Amino acid sequence: MLEYGADENKKNIDIEEVLNYSTALIKGETLLKSIPIYTRLIKEMHKIL
Fold first, then answer.
1. Based on the number of CB atoms within 10 Å of its own CB, is 39 exposed (0-12), middle (13-18) or buried (19 or more)?
2. How confident is the model at residue 6, as a pLDDT?
3. Three-state SS at 7
4. Which end of the chain is more exposed for a tag (fewer CB within 10 A), N or C?
């Protein structure tokens, strides 16, 4: 990324965003075992993002 002029702060923000999406998906997968796909599941995942 640095070759294309992205600064270190932008790189860290992008990495954090990817980690948040991964965490949200894992949380969603866990919740699917106990609740159906409804607004509550989506809201719980969105809290992480």
1. exposed
2. 59
3. coil
4. C
Q: What domain count does the chain have?
A: 1
Taking a C-beta distance cutoff of 8 angstroms, is the pair 18, 48 a contact?
A: no
**Alpha carbon 10 to chain centroid, angstroms:** 17
In total, the chain counts a number of residues equal to 49
- Counting Cα atoms < 13 Å in the Cβ hemisphere of 3 gives 0
What does the pLDDT look like over 2-47, one tens digit per residue?
A: 455 556 677 788 889 999 999 988 988 898 888 777 788 788 888 8
Domain that holds residue 25: 2-48
